[in-house]
Amino acid sequence: MISILITHYNRFEALKRCIEAFKKLKLQDIEIVVADDCSTDEVQAHLKGLPVDTLILSKKNQGLASNLNQGLKACKGQFILYCQEDFIVKPELIDYLDEAKLIISNKQADMCRLKANYRFPHLLKLSTNFSLIPKFSLKNFYYNTFQYSDNPFLTTPDFFNRFGYFLNNVSGPYGENEYAIRIMKSNAKIAISHLYFFIPNQQSESVIMHGVPVNKRNILKKLKLHRLMRAIRFHVEFIFYNSKKRGLLTLKNNRI
Fold first, then answer.
1. Which residues contact 243 (CB under 8 A, 6 or more apart)?
2. In this structure, what DSSP letter does residue 185 have?
3. Of 238, 178, 241, nearest to 208 (Cα)?
4. Comparing C-alpha atoms, which of 145, 93, 80, 138 is closest to residue 118?
5. What mean pLDDT comes out for the span 189-206?
6. Smallest Cα–Cα separation from 175: which of 138, 148, 215?
């Protein structure tokens, strides 16, 4: 069975579109799990009418990372297909899902990413439609530290037993970036599809540059230095990262 895990916060219409797109795939032997991070009472009332198998309604807003942890622990499937409510799955995914499952079952990779906001210049081909992301590559210098992201992926529950769950009660950018550094520091093998199978459900800002003041971010973009500065910054994070203490030096957790 595949558990389709969708995290949600106060974007009910987007969530409905996301669920409808998954239903149209007509996948066999699935469950749909929705984890809501304490949306308003009105929204949570609407959530109770959705055609899902498991609905988790948090009583306190704790951030995406904590919400992900709750959802992951509720999944009963052999595989977990994760996405946020701000993505819509493409119908083509159904033709590639078995290939991704086989890659994971054969231990060629621990996770298959199905979407990214960028392209890795250097990949190691695994199959017709999936490649492995190298642990480090000069060609991937801008993206080495983003082998993991909160974009849609397929994995198994064992992934989180082996490599750890997300930090609880942290801001979204902090949680995603800390976990990305953690995964790069580990021996986790991350694959990515050559085609991307999800499209945006609504406009959302990338969190990669969070922690940099907006004015400084705009100046760096004008000078075309933002990608370089981001890469240097997160490679420094990688060097000094302590997997037991779990923290970032250059990014503030806005939930503290």
1. 164, 182, 185, 186
2. H
3. 178
4. 145
5. 83
6. 148
Question: Each residue of 89-134: pLDDT tens digit?
Answer: 999 999 999 999 999 999 999 999 999 999 999 999 999 999 999 9
Q: If residue 161 lies in a helix (H) or strand (E), which one and from where to where?
A: helix 157-163
Instruction: State in Å, rounded, how far the first CA of the chain is from the last one.
Output: 38
CA–CA dist 107, 165 (Å, integer): 20
Instruction: Report the alpha-carbon distance of residue 35 to residue 18 in Å, rounded.
Output: 13
Residue of 50, 21, 24, 22 lying closest to 35 (CA atoms): 50
Q: Give the global pTM.
A: 0.90
Closest CA to 14 of 85, 80, 84, 68: 85
CB atoms within 10 A of CB 48: 9
Q: Determine the 3-state secondary structure of 172 from DSSP.
A: helix
SS3 17: helix
Look-up of token digits 């198994």? 156
Comparing CA positions, the residue from 70, 93, 65, 81 lying closest to residue 31 is 81
> In the 8-state DSSP scheme, what is residue 112?
E
Q: Are 93 and 130 in contact (CB under 8 A)?
A: no
Q: What residues pair up with 112 in beta bridges, in sequence order?
A: 154, 191
Cα–Cα distance measured from residue 81 to residue 52, given in angstroms and rounded to the nearest whole number: 15
| Cβ-contact 190, 109 below 8 angstroms | yes
CA distances 1 to 76, 78, 100, 203, 255, Å, are 8, 6, 14, 31, 35
